[in-house]
Amino acid sequence: MDLGPINVNIEGGMTYPFPPLIPVDQHFERKRLEDIDAAVTGQLRQIPDADVAGKSIAITVGSRGIMGLVEITRALVAGLRAKGAEPFIVPSMGSHGGATAEGQVAVLKGYGITEDSTGAEIRSSMEVVQIDALDDGTPLYIDRIASEADGIVIANKVKPHADFKAGYESGLVKMLCIGLGKHKGAVALHNHGFARFHDILPKAGAKLLARLPVICGLAILENAFDDLMEIEIIPRDRILEREKELLEIAKASIGRLNFTDIDVLIVDEIGKNISGEGMDPNVTGRPGSGLPGFDAPNIQKIVALDVTPQSHGNGVGIGSADLSTRQCVEKIDLGAVYTNAITATILNPAKLPMVLNSDHDAIVVALKTCNLTTPETARIVRIKNTLEIHRIWVSPALLPHVKASDRLSVAGPERPLVFDATGRLQAPE
Fold it and tell me: Is the predicted pLDDT of residue 50 greater than 70, yes or no?
């Protein structure tokens, strides 16, 4: 969309004596998986060859950014083929990719998932079949192509969800019920609302596991640095039990902003590859659902400056920001955003914030509209995105807190905010 110039008159104009920012390291535990091939191959040993030999096996691949996703998928394909199976990939992302078969293949390509990179055919369709129903009659749908396979491997990252808190959040069960349910299946379950997902997901998962030829689940865990931390293959009959345990590990391993109060949070980029809501509410404390349980700082204003290329225009989550820019908003495909939001039945993430002409102007307005704040007292935090928060930049007003915390340390000298001639904020040195 082309917004055109935006004329805003505020007292004093678009000027503000920005305080400098100081690079700060946040300290999180960094358990890291070094050898993906060995991990996947080793885990596959627990799957008997007889369970997969000669069978067509559908592997789910979703729309979330996962470190090493290409390598994991390739190793899984190779390992299954070594056991005599005929694996193929099914895009499993509900309504993402504009709710089209071609769009979902394009999303996978954006993550490097292609037939050449993985060694497996990608079979994409939005056609579904009804497998079962919940007790209240809610239909449970599954991708038709996957339903016709001899076996299914449910692969996904297990992590805290961006909209609700429960025993099952983002992971194997949700992938089975919603990701593999495509647009129709996602709509059917989201119609209950996130407030009921704590009850809906395990019931739907149990019914589908009882009816589908699921061979196993492949759970992926990441640390606070967005590194692979663990890969675990879970036998079909232990998926419900083990996923709950892995989710607790994942919750303890995510990154957070180690502050109590922030006046302005500058987010360089949002995106679907970063979080289901563009920027993770586990970091910002602003779930689009409005549901409680998100432990995060109190933030007066959030400024979102850009949308990642991997989002393919899906800037859902922009509604969690208070301010953005023309450059950012003009990259957004409202059709993709609205499809995503309507499917999830929560519209707040699709709302547009106040839009300014440049990064400079958006940050000026954010600071000027913070209550009881001066340039000397402004508590500013800048992050690249909500996945990469081990290195952040903070204003001098937060320095006493940094020095008093064993989870934070100064990583270099202070530097001024630098803008180019168009008002675009430059990457920190």
Answer: yes
Question: In the structure, what pLDDT confidence band is assigned to residue 65 with cuts at 50, 70 and 90?
Answer: confident
DSSP structure string for 348-387: GGGS--EEESSHHHHHHHHHHTSTT--TTT--EEEES-SS
Token look-up 């409005």 returns 290
Q: Which residues contact 262 (CB under 8 A, 6 or more apart)?
A: 297, 298, 299, 300, 379, 380, 381, 398
Contact 127, 146 (CB under 8 A): no
How far is residue 40's CA from residue 94's CA, in Å, rounded to a whole number? 26
pLDDT in tens, 294-329: 889 999 999 999 999 988 899 999 999 999 999 999
What does the block give as tokens for 233?
């293959």
Token pair of 355 as six digits: 């839009």
- Residue whose structure tokens are 């990701």: 179
pLDDT digits (tens, 9 = 90+) for 227-261: 999 999 999 999 999 999 999 999 999 899 999 99
pLDDT of residue 178: 95
Q: Concatenate the DSSP letters of all residues of 235-288 into one string.
A: EGGGHHHHHHHHHHHHHHHS-----SEEEEEEES-B-TTT-TTSS-HHHHS--T
Inter-residue contact 341 to 350 (CB < 8 Å):
yes
> Chain-wide mean pLDDT for the chain?
94
Above 80 in pLDDT, residue 422?
A: yes
Measured between alpha carbons, how far is residue 408 from residues 258, 272, 396, 405 in Å? Answer: 8, 28, 14, 6
Vertex 379, ends 375 and 381: CA angle to 5°?
120
Taken as a whole, the chain contains a residue count of: 429
Alpha helices in 101-196 (DSSP H): 101-110, 115-118, 144-147, 172-174, 182-190
The residue written with tokens 């290329």 in the block is 309
